[in-house]
Amino acid sequence: MLRAFVRAFRTPDLRNKLLFTIFILTIFRLGSVIPAPGIDNAAIKQCLQGVQAGDSAGLYSLINLFSGGALLQLAVFALGIMPYITASIILNLLTVVIPRLETLKKEGQAGQAKITQYTRYLTVALAVLQSTSIIAMARTGQLFQNACVPSSYMPQQDPLTLITMVFVMTGGTCIIMWFGELITERGVGNGMSLLIFTQIVAMFPSSMMRIWEEQGPWVFAIIVVAGLILMAGVVFIEQAQRRIPVQYAKRMVGRRMYGGSSTYIPLKVNQAGVIPVIFASSLLYLPQLVIGLLGNDTNNSVVNFLSTYFNPNGTHPVYMVTFFLLIVGFAFFYVAITFNPAEVADNMKKYGGFIPGIRPGRPTAEYLDYVLTRLTTPGALYLGVIALLPMLALGASGAAGNFPFGGTSILIMVGVGLDTVKQIESHLQQRNYEGFLR
C-alpha cells in the first residue's frame, strides 16, 4: 500500500490532483478556526473548557460534527457543509413529488446542471436561516447551555454586527460549496464528501485526548479496540453487495452484431448510505427545538416530558428505540425513492437485457423489488445498530459524549475513505500499476 502511495505521487497528473486536494483541504481547515467578526476567540476557548463537547452543542450537535467543531467556536465556516447536504436531500425528495424536477433529472447533464443551480440557491437560503438561529442562540447563551455569559464572547451585539456575522457565515458556506466543486473537478474524490471527512477526522485528536485525561489509559485502550472492531465491521458491510446477473441478447444493426454480453446489477446491502441516520438525527432534534422555544420551564409538562425522554444525549430507552425505528423507516423510504425497479426493468427491456430465468417487463420489476426489500431489511437494521452501539456500549463509561467512533461519523469516514481509495486505484490501474487493493 505504501508503494502504491509512492507510485501515485510519481505520476505527474495524479500527483497534481492529490496536491491540489490537500491544498484546498488545508485552506478549508484554516477557515474553520478563524472567528467571525464580533467574536472574542479567547473567551470562546475559555467557555469551551468548562463545557463538555457532547453536551454543549445540544440541538446543533450534528452541524457541529460536520463543521469539525467550528460551530462552537463561531468561526467563519461555522455552518460547515450541512446547509448543502440538507439542500441536496430536499431536492432529491422533491424530485419524486414535483414533475418539473423529475423531467430535469431525465434530461441528462443539462438537467442535472439546472438541479445543481437550484441546490445552490436553496443552500444559501438555508445558510441564512441557520446562521441567524445560531447567532440568536449564542446571543442568549443557549448554544452553550447558559454555561457562559454571552457578553463575554460577543461583546458587541448591535444590529450591524449581528447582520455582518450572518453575512460572513453565509459567505463561508458558499466558499465551502465552491471548494467542494473544485475538488470534484480538479482533485481526487468527491469534494463534498472529502470536506465532511476532513472535519470529522479533525475532531479525533481532541476527543481521544479528552478520553485519555478523563477516563484513564484502560478505558482509552478499550475504546480504541472497540472503534477498530466497529470500523472493520462497517467496512465489511459497506463492501457487501448482491450482484444480479443481466444478459443482453444479440441484435443486428446494419451489418454489425451488437449485444450478447453479460453484466450484473450491483445492489449494496446498505443502499441508503448514511442518509437515514442524518434524517433520524435531524428529526429527533425537533423536541430540543420545542424546548428552546418554550424555555426551560420545569413547571411545563411538555418541557419536562421532552427533556426526560428525548434529551440530546440519547441516554433514555425511549429515545434509543425511537431513533432505531426512525432509521429503519427512513432507510426503506430513501431506497424506495432512489431506486425504481420498474424504471430499471423498462430500460433493460428497451436495450434487450434480461435476468436469466425472469421474464422481461413486470416480472423483472417484481423480482428486483423482492430482492431489494430483502437486502434493505438487514441494511436498515445494520444502520440502526451502528448508530446505537456507541450509546449502548459506552454510555455507562461516561465517554459516549466524547466517543469519536459514533454511528454517523464512522459511516461517513469508511464510505468516503473507500470511495477515495478506489478512485486513486483506478488512476493507477490505467497506467498498469498495482492499486491499493490487491
TrEMBL record:
The keyword Cytoplasm does not apply. Gene3D superfamilies: SecY subunit domain (1.10.3370.10). It is a multi-pass membrane protein. Coiled coil: none annotated. The chain crosses the membrane at residues 70-97, 118-140, 160-180, 192-212, 218-237, 316-339, 380-397. Keywords: Cell membrane, Membrane, Protein transport, Translocation, Transmembrane, Transmembrane helix, Transport. It comes from the Bacteria. Pfam families: SecY. It is found in: Cell membrane; Membrane. Its main location: membrane. GO terms for biological process: intracellular protein transmembrane transport; protein targeting; protein transport by the Sec complex. The keyword Transmembrane helix applies. GO terms for cellular component: plasma membrane. Signal peptide: none annotated. NCBIfam families: 3a0501s007. Belongs to the SecY/SEC61-alpha family. The central subunit of the protein translocation channel SecYEG. Consists of two halves formed by TMs 1-5 and 6-10. These two domains form a lateral gate at the front which open onto the bilayer between TMs 2 and 7, and are clamped together by SecE at the back. The channel is closed by both a pore ring composed of hydrophobic SecY resides and a short helix (helix 2A) on the extracellular side of the membrane which forms a plug. The plug probably moves laterally to allow the channel to open. The ring and the pore may move independently. Component of the Sec protein translocase complex. Heterotrimer consisting of SecY, SecE and SecG subunits. The heterotrimers can form oligomers, although 1 heterotrimer is thought to be able to translocate proteins. Interacts with the ribosome. Interacts with SecDF, and other proteins may be involved. Interacts with SecA. This is Protein translocase subunit SecY. It comes from Marinactinospora thermotolerans DSM 45154. The lineage of its organism: Bacteria, Bacillati, Actinomycetota, Actinomycetes, Streptosporangiales. The gene is secY.
